Amino acid sequence: MKKTAWVVLSLISLSTYAQKTEGVLTYTQKTDLKSRFQNMDPAMQARMPENITRQYQLAFTPQEALYEPAAVIEEGNGFGGGGPMGGPMRFGGSSSIVYTQIAEKKRTEARDIFGEKYRVLDTLVNQRWKLGKETRTIKGFVCQKASFTDTMRVQRIMMGPGGPPAGENQQPMLRTVVAWYAPEIPVSIGPEKYSGLPGLILEVDVNNGESLYTVSEMEWRKPKSSELKAPKGGKVVTEKEVREIMMKRMEEMRKNGGGMRMRPGN
Questions:
Q1: 3-class DSSP string for 47-104
Q2: Which SS3 state, helix, strand or coil, does residue 189 take?
Q3: What does the pLDDT read at residue 36?
Q4: N or C: at which end does the chain have fewer Cβ atoms within 10 angstroms?
Q5: What are the beta bridge partners of residue 203?
Q6: pTM for the whole thing?
Q7: By CB neighbour count within 10 A (0-12 exposed, 13-18 middle, 19+ buried), where does 10 fall?
Q8: How far apart are CA 57 and CA 66, in angstroms?
Q9: What is the pLDDT of residues 159-169, one digit of tens each?
Q10: Looking at residue 166, what is its pLDDT?
């Protein structure tokens, strides 16, 4: 009798463990636009919301994952109401979709850049995580802290056609990323492009609240095939080519007038 009970408990334990290697999670991302867009023209500031709250879905198995937009929850209050250029500026949700082949360390990302569709084929970014000893509980899972700091390029688009070309006006800026991952969920993936930790990442904080990704819902089930489809369509490009395209578009914006200091997506 004791042996039978032990076998039953073992099977339940194995079933629970299996559930923790595949699932469908919802992340809520809050972006502080005052930090993301600095030194902006006052008329544009008046039309821009202070923050945006969005939801994303992460479907995953030990082999693959798909991270895609789910909804725009809220665009916070503007910097001061409508400006002379019209009503409030609406941002909407990001159309970027990230498909990851975890074992092969490859990713496919679908992006919409100024109305044009692209498909980025690349390897996973080698984020040099520093593992910490601090822990906290998120959704019932004991998570450990990890962090890294790197340098990203910040593009400032000068007001009016008299400024320097966009490519000559990039500034380096440190980016600090703090993540909380759950070793109990042994899948090396997380929101956006964050990965490479010995457990599923449940929260990411970029630059002390500039962008905050937090898991809000968790379903422990096998994702449907439709929830793990790699994006198709769009012009195939590399990450380097995407940056060149962005620079070209920014230069066109500079020539047409308008300016802001902006950080690329995290």
A1: HCECEEEEEEEEEECCCEEEEEEEEEEEECCECCCCECCECCCCCCCCCCEEEEECCC
A2: coil
A3: 58
A4: N
A5: 180, 214
A6: 0.76
A7: exposed
A8: 8
A9: 344 444 444 44
A10: 46
Amino acid, single-letter form, for residue 80 = G
Q: Where are the alpha helices (DSSP H) in 20-107?
A: 33-36, 42-47
Task: Check residue 9 and report its DSSP letter.
Answer: H
Widest Cα–Cα separation across the chain? 85
Q: What is the DSSP letter of 252?
A: H
User: Which amino acid, residue 228?
Assistant: L
pLDDT in tens, 155-199: 444 434 444 444 444 566 788 999 999 999 999 999 999 999 999
* Contact between residue 196 and residue 129 where contact means Cβ atoms under 8 Å apart: yes
Low pLDDT (below 70) residues in the chain: 1-19, 34-48, 72-95, 152-172, 257-266
Phi, psi of 162 (to 5 degrees): -90, -5
The single residue listed with the structure tokens 């490009």 is 237
Nearest to 52 by CA among 80, 25, 71, 24: 71
Is residue 88 helix, strand or coil? coil
Nearest to 32 by CA among 191, 211, 182: 211
The residues near 170 (Cβ < 8 Å, ≥ 6 apart) are 153, 154, 155, 156
Torsions phi, psi for 73 (to 5 deg): -80, -45
Q: Position of tokens 């339940």?
A: 12
Measured CA to CA, the distance from residue 174 to residue 151 in angstroms comes to 5
Residue 8 CB-density burial (10 A; 0-12 exposed, 13-18 middle, 19+ buried): exposed
Look up residue 20 and give its two tokens: 């923790």
Q: What would the two tokens of residue 205 be?
A: 């904080």
